[in-house]
Input
Amino acid sequence: MRARRSRRDEPQNSDKMKAMMTRRDLLPSIPALMAVRSLKGADVVYQRFDTHTHIHNYFPDMIDALEKSNFKCLSICDSREIGDEKSTLPEMTEGTIAAVKQSRGRLAWGTTFDPRNFEDKDFTSRAIARVKEHFGQGAIAVKIWKNIGMAIRSQKGAYLLPDNPRLLPIYETIQREGKTLISHLADLNAAWMDPTGNPVGGKYYQDHPEWRMFGKAGAPSKEAILNARDRVMTKYPKLRVVGCHIGSNEQDLDLVARRLDTYPNFAVDLASRIRYLTPDSQRAKAREFLIKYQDRIIYGTDFNMVAGDKAPGLPGKHEQEWKILATNGAVPEKKGSTRGLDLPDSVLKKIFHDNAARWIQGIES
Ligand SMILES: [Zn+2]
Output
């Protein structure tokens, strides 16, 4: 049996099995037993991390459930506003800090800053003071979001790119303090594609024209945004950078592989993109990718929970995605089912535990 899984959920079965089988009976059946993979993530003996959630309030039921499944989540504050929308960061930050305090060690958190006023004289120094204050309050990471590259513009109309000189001293601070930069930059390819061609994921951009780059004058290409991110990694080689959503190259694993080969300080999370890995046409290649880059891939969901949400769906999501990554069978989904990727135990442990501990230091404490 695999050491990773305690058999505490099946004491009766194993006791019965022992009683029924002599040692001589058992030996020939070992290969058959090895082939059976437990479907239950609940049997995993190590703590698992979900490094990409947005949980900004204390939800006692969810904390209880995380305790039961032995998951710990990184709750990340995002600065999502564009134009002159009112920032939600003050309540979000306060709520997150309070939730972490009450979470009995089940939540860690990441901070962010509002990049909209990047041309203000004191923008950089204020952002640095803010992230340092939050490091003092336990934040272990800083997030930058796709409004950098896709929405925020200078007074003159130029798009703010992630390697803008106004942002660099902030990254330098994150590097110096030993924290992690979490970057969701750019988006699905569909944002840059002609919607009449029905590109994969294109519906989102019909519903959210503010993120549709296709046909927008002066908008940078997807590669231009990601290349600007990559220049930050070159400039700060000791800065650990986690690219959300498979580094936004979820639709082209060759591209993300090339980046992982080029930038040793780059890792990616799987948040909300596992479905891009499982179609029959992708499955073998995706499995090979996950195994080859097993030290650079981190589990996350992008689960979002806001005040007023009742049913904590997160444990169900964890269990389902664990099955997809860990097993070879058909895993039921909302519509139909997905065949699991059947990753080796040693790779699963890295994706769900070791890599989070290494790339997002402080998540274990
Ligand atoms: Zn997210």
Q: What stands out?
A: The domain at 48-359 is CATH 3.20.20.140 (TIM Barrel). The CA atoms of residues 5 and 38 lie 8 Å apart.
